[in-house]
Amino acid sequence: MLNYALKRRILFSAYWTIYSGSTFSSPTGFYTYNHRTIPIFDKKNNDRLPTYRRLDVAFKFVLNKKPDARFRHDLTFSIYNLLGHKNIVAVNFNHSLNDKGNPVIKANLLAESELVATRAYLLQFFPSLTYKMNL
Description:
The protein is mainly β. Helices cover 0% and strands 53% of the residues.
């Protein structure tokens, strides 16, 4: 974490987060029973998601010109995941994908289909503006 006062009323902060990806149980095979595809798991937590990392930054503007004012007003502009890294939070096994790569739920659930691993991502880039008043 880095906090730096650019000026008396302008503060900059940056926060770097990195940790190894979470473990999850991925199927090692599949079998068909009663026209349904059943996953086979040989052990728990046999796979790991990629490394999670993000950089958050913020600029805080103190709106009061006098430090001893009765009310304190701050305006903060922040960006979550400034670098826009795609952090995977889950892996799902869906039956099929459309042309755009999105999962499709077929009308005929008894039909044979190939399972495809899809990934769910957290927010890539998220700016925000916050106003705060302290009494």
